[in-house]
Design a protein that fits this description.
This protein is an alpha+beta fold. Helix content is 53%, strand content 11%.
Amino acid sequence: MVSFGESSSGRRRGSSVLVFGRWRLRRFGREMAGVLEATRALAEVDDLADGLALLARQLTELFDGTACMISRYDAERDVTTDWAGYARPPFGLNRIAESYPLHSYPATQAVLAERSPITVAADRGVYPEEELLLRHLGFQASLILPLSHGEDAFGLVELFERRRRTFTTAEQHFALLIVNQAAVVLAAHRAAERLEHQDFAMVAALASALEAKDSYTRRHAQQIGELAVAVGEHLGLHGSHLRVLRMGGMLHDVGKIGVPEAILNKPGQLTDDEFEIVKQHTTVGATIIGDIPGLGPVIDIVRCSHERWDGAGYPLGLSGDEIPIGARIVAVCDAFHAMTEDRVYRKAMSTELAAHELTRCSGTQFWPPAVAALLSVIRDGARAVRYPQPTDWTPW
């Protein structure tokens, strides 16, 4: 056997092999660091959408792509819906979540069914439906990967490229490795969320105690919680802030337990004395939940959800930035929902008229950014896609 040291050509060849080997090792190290960084970010955040937005950024940068969108998959409806994403500036992706019925996209169906990646090029004519969508979005190529764990396929990861590009087999395998690792972390998050839903069930049970007096209030409470979260997402709230907001929306009127039924269901206008009794429900509600473990951050929302931006609300007469942000959001959601539901003393307004009324009261009764966000939710009928953007204000 000839050793690398026996000739000059051998030494050059040996040196090249060593240099190539070191380059491969460095690249392998960077790739493994990318895997760890991408999955670490997902594991450490307290909100799934936040972690997925960071994962989308990691994947885009690691594979030198243009953008990445992560979608949730609803197996019952066979539909995917945008969840979180990232696009390299100045390129952009849609800010409002769109849904796609998979019967229209057979290649994407195959990715979920077979748990294997597929590459799509806009001009190949192999996957007509996906290629048409790709061109519509302004991209030339994409890599579609399944987000699954065990037998559960719960999402898609799509890497997009605006240049002509072929994702190599090695790139596909490496991307799938990252996504599979992320799916393990994501599955743990989903298990934790199921436990968290038990907490929400407890909150819902507390809110439903109102049903005995006011059948409207229980339904109202559930819907305000969901609407407040959608508005909060549009305003950039994440993680635990959204959970607090949901519970605050659900419990904002729980103090009505202490209001006599005759006043709650009175068909005509309340007297001044009756209205004073109704106004006490905010402080009564704050007292009710004050001793419940884990609901401390919700107290201020319950207490302040009837304050007004101009200071003319109750019970404390707070104004502007003195009002907690969660309470500002719940206030506008509460008003919209109340206007668009039948009450014992009036019929519901139309959505258009209620939206006009919110706009008229923006800056006086309501915080203008909350009004704008709610109108966006009403108009688009969807949640916002989560992007990894820093926020320059502290929400709570």
